[in-house]
Write a structure and sequence with these properties.
500 residues; 3 domains; binds iron/sulfur cluster; Rossmann fold; 20 helices; 5-stranded parallel β-sheet; single chain
Length: 500
């Protein structure tokens, strides 16, 4: 009897086991897709996402684009979580969903359902593109989105696989969709005339910024570039389809967020040089303006004009807003190293920076700069590594993800959610230099208050002993922990015996 390939059960998911899901996906014909994801988004010490479902990154990129419909194909519980999060973040539009069950999955009917949904949605009066996102189970089951029509009545159909067992962070999932769209747009532009990007100024060379930035940042970067005669191209991820052509039309691309591997591949395929890092602090801005100017083939005198105008203002802002605090920094946005540079230039003592994103050539300059100043840089940092660093350093301020902030507060350490810090204020140029100090000062002032809170709650149950509805501190049933310990030891022994 033939051996059946491993099947992804409809209820499998984040907790179904990465190896099982991967084996199922490969057996179902997704070997090439999975190899591509592995190449673009290499894994690190942790193999499972430790933040929200990665597909949220792709979903968000689709939802933020004008005249783009987004359809999810996945388990209902995943889709519930993803739509909930989308609306929490103000999506204000519908997320399409093609449901499935064991039968439609196994018989291939799901693919037909997706095709019908796409046919129904792709109306040129409403949309420029329809995005279909395969979540974990449809990817593991080999639902072949590449067999969807590439366009229907001029509406592009973009099908992507974004499984949690192949894309480690939601940051990188943004790149999966941004890269797929750039690829289509590049092929269209190569094939013939395309729609004119909005706001295009003929003859004005532009720089395409890669990464989701605080809205004022592209404007600030535009001011830094202006003395060189450069302006800012539409950003990646784009806000509307024709912006993709505008971005590809740049003279050089700037990988401000360094994990957009697929997008960068498209810029390179279009013949555009790509520079890494970003204009943070005095040294970062100097190096970045020089790199951008050289990539744009500008004479040294023009580059000198830009640096002469930008640097004194940044120097002044940093001098006027010094940071005197010991800080640990971690996050999953991809801009952690840039924020770290700015903090260090402003005077912070920063022993540790962790990023959930991988090491790429686009953050090499930042890594080298930080390490030369004694900062430990941890790529693909796990939550455990971030927490261990914070516990060891005992900083005046811990900046990190939600669970890290929670742990810091338990210890009485002032803490700040990274995303709130970077998404609510500028990071680049003089504006970035001025904005960081105020928030650090405001947070570290609370240290004494945190200490009081810890002593006030001393003795109240924590971790598995925490909860509501107890008259006193929750207590374990007698002997419970010891019985569990013995059970675990017996299980481990049995597994060892099977392996030998
Ligand atoms: S799609 Fe997201 S939520 Fe669903 S199983 Fe995969 S990683 Fe988990």
């Amino acid at each position: 009897m033939d051996t059946l390939p491993p099947q992804a059960a409809p209820e499998a998911g984040c907790h179904g086991g990465r190896d099982t899901m991967l084996a199922a996906a490969q057996a179902a014909g997704k070997t090439e897709t999975m190899a591509g994801l592995m190449r673009d988004y290499p894994r690190g010490p942790h193999d499972q996402p430790q933040s929200m479902c990665p597909a949220f990154g792709s979903l968000r990129v689709g939802l933020r684009m004008r005249r783009v419909a987004t359809i999810l194909s996945g388990s209902a519980c995943c889709v519930y979580g993803l739509t909930f999060t989308s609306h929490f973040y103000g999506a204000r539009r519908s997320v399409g969903y093609v449901p499935f069950n064991s039968e439609t999955l196994v018989t291939g009917r799901l693919f037909e359902d997706i095709r019908e949904a796409v046919q129904e949605t792709a109306k040129p009066a409403d949309y420029d593109a329809v995005v279909v996102i395969n979540l974990c189970v449809p990817t593991a089951s080999g639902v072949p989105l590449d067999l969807l029509p590439r366009q229907i009545d001029g509406v592009r159909i973009i099908g992507i696989d974004v499984p949690g067992f192949g894309v480690p962070t939601h940051a990188e999932a943004k790149d999966v969709l941004a890269g797929a769209m750039l690829r289509t747009a590049r092929q269209e532009a190569e094939a013939g005339p395309v729609a004119r990007p909005q706001g295009l100024v003929e003859g004005e060379p532009t720089i395409a910024l890669i990464g989701e930035l605080f809205p004022a940042d592209p404007v600030g970067i535009g001011a830094l570039l202006q003395p060189m005669g450069l302006s800012v191209a539409p950003q990646t991820p784009a806000r509307e389809w024709r912006d993709l052509y505008g971005a590809l039309d740049c003279v050089a691309a700037a990988a401000v967020h360094p994990f957009y591997t697929a997008s960068i591949r498209e810029f390179r395929a279009a013949g555009r040089p790509v520079v890494g890092s970003g204009p943070v602090g005095v040294e970062g801005t100097l190096a970045w303006l020089e790199a951008v100017g050289q990539a744009a083939n500008l004479p040294a005198s023009r580059i000198g004009l830009a640096t002469a105008r930008a640097l004194p203002a940044i120097q002044g802002a940093l001098g006027a807003n010094p940071i005197r605090a010991r800080i640990t920094l971690s996050g999953y946005e991809g801009s952690e190293l840039l924020v770290a540079r700015l903090l260090v230039e402003a005077g912070a003592e920063l022993p540790y920076v962790g990023t959930a994103c991988p090491r790429t050539e686009w953050s090499e300059a930042d890594r080298a700069w930080l390490q030369a100043r004694g900062v430990h840089v941890q790529y693909r940092a796990s939550l455990e590594q971030d927490v261990a660093a914070m516990e060891e350093v005992r900083p005046d301020l811990a900046i990190g993800t939600t669970p890290l902030v929670q742990r810091a507060k338990e210890l009485g350490i002032p803490a700040l959610y990274f995303t709130n810090m970077v998404s609510a204020r500028p990071l680049f140029g003089p504006a970035g230099a001025a904005s960081m100090a105020a928030i650090v000062a405001a947070q570290t002032r609370g240290r004494e208050r945190f200490g009081r809170m810890v002593s006030f709650f001393e003795g109240v149950g924590t971790r598995d002993g925490a909860g509501y509805g107890f008259a006193g501190k929750p207590a374990d049933p007698p002997g419970f922990r010891e019985r569990q310990r013995k059970l675990r030891a017996a299980r481990a022994k049995a597994e060892e015996a099977v392996g030998s």
